[in-house]
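Model it.
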Amino acid sequence: MRVLWTHNFDPAILDKGCFMYSAYEGLRDAGVDVQLEYLGNLRSPFQMLSARKRIRALSGKFDVVHAQYGSACAWVTSGIRDKPLCLTLRGGDFNIAKNIGIMMELHNYFASSLTKSVLDKFSSICAISNRMASQLSGLELNKKLIVMPSPIDLDLWRPKSYENQINDFPRTKNVLFTSININDQNKRYSLCEQVIKLANHQMGDVRLKVATGIPHKDMPNFVAACDAVLCTSISEGWPNSIKEALACNVPFVATDVSDLAEIASREPSCRICKPDSELLAKALCEVLQAPRPMNLRRHVEIMDLKASSKRLSDIYKSLLMT
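Modeled.
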């Protein structure tokens, strides 16, 4: 079985699509012959049409084609007519976030519209969260809709003892904030800064650790050395920063995005709050002052790379049998 993965995560941008590359390696380790194909810049109709023609020709060498994102990536891939097609939706390609700036809102609206226009062309659609699957359920996709978060390598993302944490982290309270671009209005970095300022006023010794531009190989130690992760986003598919933190037994304080409320309802060490700096700071202080939780990994065990790779391989096999 040969599988082609189409994507538009620019390889020149550090950590762009790192979750996809991890899943790719896991699938190859599971014995699936999978090839990545970067579609290039898809910002003009000419570029989209050119990529669509190229991918249609390339697809003849493969049994299944899997688009790793909606929007233009899905549109390009949907031009293939004689192969089973799979699509993974990740959030920004379907959700329309508000209050992120007029240009980004227009971009999101266009991306979502483009995604919806080709959903019927795909044999299987993977939503990375239960919340997204619920939003998609009204589009009569139930028969081919699968909830499948991006996998995480639990052998790589592991809790660290304080003795093994990286040396430049003193035992103050370190709060993680992750973003490829802190100017992304969806991430609300300014709200994060307000929360940290208030938390410092309430309990002192709270340090913000911004994970941006850090090589992915260094991230597990960076994350495990933190005491909490803060997510202030307007919208998320399934935030990898939270997933990785939970794998390292690091609790979260977050706005109500993705499936995080489901976890917080079962996990006393985690909090969901309205996007209010005082409420978030209060919750963050409570989390930081509580005993460090011991088994947050259980919330992401279902997303383990090996199990997810086996499941995805089975999905491909079932598509070939229909």
